[in-house]
Amino acid sequence: MTIPSTLTARSAPALAGVVRAPGDKSISHRALILGAMASGVTDIDGLLEGDDILATARAVAALGAGVERLGPGRWRVTGHGGFKQPAGVIDCGNAGTGVRLLMGAAAGYPITVTFDGDASLRKRPMKRVTGPLADMAARLAWSGEEDRLPVTITGGRLAAINYRQTVASAQIKSAILLAGLNADGVTAVTEPEPSRDHTERMLRAFGAEVGVLPDGAGWRVTFRGGQTLTAAPVTVPGDPSSAAFPLAAALIVPGSAVTVEGVMLNPLRTGLFETWREMGADLTVSNRRTAGGEEIGDITARHSALKGVVVPPERAASMIDEYPILAATAAFADGDTVMRGIGEMRLKESDRIALMAAGLQACGVAVEEEAEGFTVTGGSKNGSVRGGAAVTTHGDHRIAMSHLILGLAAADPVTVDQPAMIATSFPGFVELMRGLGADIGSA
Ligand SMILES: O=C(O)C1=C[C@@H](OP(=O)(O)O)[C@@H](O)[C@H](O)C1
Ligand SMILES: C=C(OP(=O)(O)O)C(=O)O
Q1: 439 an active-site residue?
Q2: 1 pLDDT exceeds 60?
Q3: Is 95's C-beta closer than 6 angstroms to any atom of ligand 2?
Q4: Where in the sequence is the active site (predicted)?
Q5: Residue closest to 120 by CA, chosen among 93, 90, 100
């Protein structure tokens, strides 16, 4: 299959249909990593087969776990109660979650591991994780610039720490907790606001005890070292961060109604849906049920007259990856949508504030950029957006998908570069959107 160098979205007639969200990326990483740390066979159903997750699957295999693909989304990890010395460099590709959680987990074993990633991952800060790991007695060697990959970690028996985070980050929290499994004493992580709790939930599902107590507006999570992880089956729910794209398209393309089935409804992940409702979005959730220890449901979005809102900054952790698609939908709202307290957006696969501002402005949308946020001024009451731009994505999957969705409702076509990167989190995005009636193609 040849991968086109650009993709173009053109204004579509009404979108309609029922689709299934791909497996959650956060839970897929954790299922592979915890499966490799545990003893026994972890059967995973619904694993996301995106490039980030495939990199983590290769990583845990290199670290000594048995990894088999049994069928689409069905994977088996055989853990031997810990990581073994790998033969070569662990390349985590584009995945911040993959590398940060793996660094934390590896630090607890008597091995020396060099971690690396692609050009985007090499630009992202790593000291936020290696700093606390060094405090726990892991040894570090940076190959080049400090705070940037590649880095070599020598692990072993660690000392528990009491770590207070300044930003709510599930990646930092998870890395410290996974290191804490092999630390003497009780490791504690306090966060200013609650971040996604998938690691805590999965540690419990694997038989460990994790304590959680409120601490100000956030939580203090405690984890006693030396516990045993026992393999357990994992059913991966649908990813709300991916479901956001077809749902967004339905909200902005006139006449549309789209249902995404099996979407995880963990409240630490659904800030976008709350914000869209405040904007006047017609979103309904049906068939609520549980799968893999998470509440899931089918979400239907219908075309809606949206209005601009001020997004509460304390909601940021529960929708941090969703601000790009929120900004794209805000372009069709009546009035200003104000997004603040999201400086972390600048440290993702790209500087997402800068790239969304540039892309939307190129499409004729007024955007005011700030150090830690931005304001998008919607098209007007008739919701019209010009489009007609070629957007630079810097290889960021969410920047690419957000602009393609915008292009489905803009007057003129919108083109993005590096569309192959969409497979990082949402393989099959283009086919799924075409199935709903979207006009997205390589010409
Ligand atoms: O723990 C996770 O699975 C994730 C945490 C978030 O990052 P931070 O912890 O850096 O906020 C998010 O942006 C990322 O896509 C996935
Ligand atoms: C930020 C993201 O992922 P990661 O940090 O794992 O690269 C994302 O998927 O939007």
Answers
A1: no
A2: no
A3: yes
A4: 321
A5: 93
The domain of 14 spans 6-23+237-441
1 located within any domain: no
Same domain membership, residue 135 and residue 223: yes
Instruction: Point out the domain boundary residue: 174, 204, 235.
Output: 235
- Which amino acids bring their CB within 6 angstroms of ligand 1? 26, 97, 169-171, 174, 196, 320-321, 344
Does the Cβ of 349 fall within 6 Å of ligand 2? yes
Ligand 2 nearest-atom number relative to CA 94: 7
| Residues 429, 421 contacting (CB under 8 angstroms) | no
Distances from the Cα of 161 to the Cαs of 71, 132, 168, 176, 281, in angstroms?
A: 41, 8, 17, 9, 44
Please give the distance, rounded to the nearest whole angstrom, from the Cα atom of residue 169 to the centre of ligand 1.
6
Do 255 and 107 fall into the same domain?
A: no
198 in any annotated domain? yes
ipTM of the complex: 0.99
Asked if the bond preceding 150 is cis, omega within 30° of 0, the reply is yes
Average pLDDT taken over every residue of the chain: 97
Q: Which mutation among 27, 124, 169 tests ligand 1's pocket best, with the greatest number of atoms within 8 A of CB?
A: 169
Q: Which residue has the tokens 């970690």?
A: 153
State yes or no: pLDDT of 382 exceeds 60.
Answer: no
Query: Is 96 flagged in the annotation as binding?
Result: yes
Question: What's the CA-to-centroid distance between 122 and ligand 2, angstroms?
Answer: 13
| Together in a domain, 141 and 255 | no
Alpha helices in 282-349 (DSSP H): 323-330
The verdict on whether residue 25 carries a ligand-binding annotation is yes
Model-wide pTM > 0.95 = yes
Q: Which ligand 2 atom is the nearest neighbour of the CA of 424?
A: 9
Last residue of a domain, one of 219, 235, 251: 235
